[in-house]
Each structure stands twice: as structure tokens, then as C-alpha cells.
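INFO batch 0412 | record 1 of 1 | parsing
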Amino acid sequence: MWPECGGVNPGIHYGETDDYGDYPVKDKVHPHDLRATMLNLLGFDLTKLTYRYADHDFRLISAHGEVVSRRLA
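INFO prediction complete | emitting C-alpha cells
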């Protein structure tokens, strides 16, 4: 799922799952964090990425998304 040339260390895996691979047990990453990290790797400024709806500006990544920088090159 990760592009190897976008700032991510190649050939790594992150976190652990249970014996069946159903549930994460170590180093969980929320989908909001995954989205924020992917947009950051693509070069988007997450604080300025907004859209306008009903005369209000909404951030695409709200307060929930944080960049996971533990495994970035």
C-alpha cells in the first residue's frame, strides 16, 4: 500500500496483528492518520487543505488526523 519512493523506507512492515491477522495488537494506525500521512507524502499542506460548504470552510483532515512520522525516511 505504501509507495517506496515517496519518503517511506522500502521493504518494511509496521505494527503487528493477532495470530489470524484479523486485529491489530501493536502500533495501531487510525484511518484518519493514514490519510493524513498519505496526503503529507504527496506534498499537501494539511493545515491549508480546506473546502467550502454552506459558507463555511472545512478542513479535509480535521483534528483527528496526524502524520505518522515514525516510519518515514
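INFO post-check: The radius of gyration is 15 Å.
INFO record closed
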